[in-house]
Amino acid sequence: MVNIRSVVASLLSLWLVASAQAQIESIAIAGDGEFTRITVTSQTELNAEIFMGTGPDGRILQVLPETHTLAGDPYYGLPTGGVAAYTIDTDRIIFELDLPMMIARELTLPPTGSEPSYRFILDLSRVSQARFEQAASRDALRLARFIQASASPALAQPVVTPDVVEAASAPSPKPWGLGAIVEAAKRQRHTVVIDAGHGGRDSGALVVTGGEEADIVLQTAIALKEELSEDPRYDVRL
């Protein structure tokens, strides 16, 4: 005879485990390279450890949530700012950085009237390559110790060599399945069109110190084009 009380208790325990996991609903990225904001929304509060590091494709930022799953129809924003691409793996979110950046601020915000989800926010600011490498070296050992502490006692091994650190910092090769791995095109270029105005014979207003408005606007547009063209993320048209 089936024990109804045992069945209910088992189902309740499974529900409690599932409800404790943060269901990721969306990932959004905004910024201009000097400053970049990463926002992860979830149905429950997302607690995570953050590690800077290096990977096969260069600089990376790893976010390791305590427990997380994907919501039914998650939204993935395109990488921009200092983020070239990102991947959602079974145990972490890996952001590939095309600029040396570090975390300036980390926030966890509860739901509000206008925002029904929890928000996990990382504000990144650009730093020198030397400073990034220093932070990545420090975090590599910290990540290895974190993974060792999270492993079962039978599998845990002392962290004594650089080889252990490199192995620990590599992302898990196991994907979540269809639609779970997101890797947008790397180094996506944005087209910027600058319109200097004053088409035809209209020269615009006259400047008190001499010259015409059209000349000043054109000089400004050319200077802006030269400035933006130095950034490989922009394809500038004048």
Top keywords for this entry?
238 residues, elongated, 34% strand, 11 strands, Immunoglobulin-like, alpha+beta, four-stranded antiparallel sheet, single chain, 4 helices
Explain how this protein is built.
- This protein has 238 residues and is of the alpha+beta class.
- It has two domains: 154 residues, Immunoglobulin-like, CATH 2.60.40.3500; 48 residues, no CATH class.
- Helix content is 27%, strand content 34%.
- The protein has four helices and eleven strands.
- Helix 2 packs across helix 3.
- The N terminus is likely disordered.
Give a brief rundown of this model:
By secondary structure, the protein is α+β, with helices and mostly antiparallel strands.
Put simply, the count of helices is 4
CATH topology of the largest domain: Immunoglobulin-like
- Strand pairing plus helix content: what structural class? alpha+beta
Number of domains: 2
CATH C-level class of the largest domain is Mainly Beta
Major beta sheet summary: 5 strands, mixed
Q: What's the shape?
A: elongated
N- to C-terminal separation?
A: 80 Å
Percent helix:
25-40%
* Rounded Rg: 24 Å
List strands and helices in order, with pairings.
Layout: H1 4-20, E1 22-31, E2 35-42, E3 48-55, E4 58-65, E5 68-76, E6 83-88, E7 93-97, E8 101-109, E9 118-126, H2 129-150, H3 162-169, E10 190-193, H4 213-229, E11 234-237
Parallel strand pairs: 1-5, 10-11
Antiparallel strand pairs: 1-2, 2-9, 3-4, 4-7, 6-7, 8-9
Helix pairs in contact: 2-3
